[in-house]
Amino acid sequence: QVQLVESGGGMVQAGGSLRLSCLSSGRTFSRYTVGWFRRAPGKEREFVSGISWSGGTTYYADSVKGRFTISRDNAKNTVYLQMNSLKPEDTAVYYCAATVRVTVPQPYWNYDYWGQGTQVTVSS
Description:
Layout: E1 4-7, E2 10-13, E3 18-24, E4 33-39, E5 46-51, E6 58-60, E7 68-73, E8 78-83, E9 92-99, E10 113-114, E11 118-123
């Protein structure tokens, strides 16, 4: 069983930065692929970024490429999402999720474990 807890959300002005963290309580966290998703009010949940268990493979949604960076520290059971040059359209609840799949899937239904989410609000 994997439990995920996100932190690092908050309110920031456009152009600012935030770093989200996803901490796992599971001892086998290093075996899981992890994805970040977000859900804005009135919109569907969307894939933001994902990272393989080793950290060797990463993917980003086109809307965040060049601005967001995903990384992981398996010794700390933590995955990070560094978000720079934030825009008002990045406002959403951000969730991390984990899957045992070796690849980095984008559809949310491929992920088995989810955190409770952290709110990110970007003001213009």
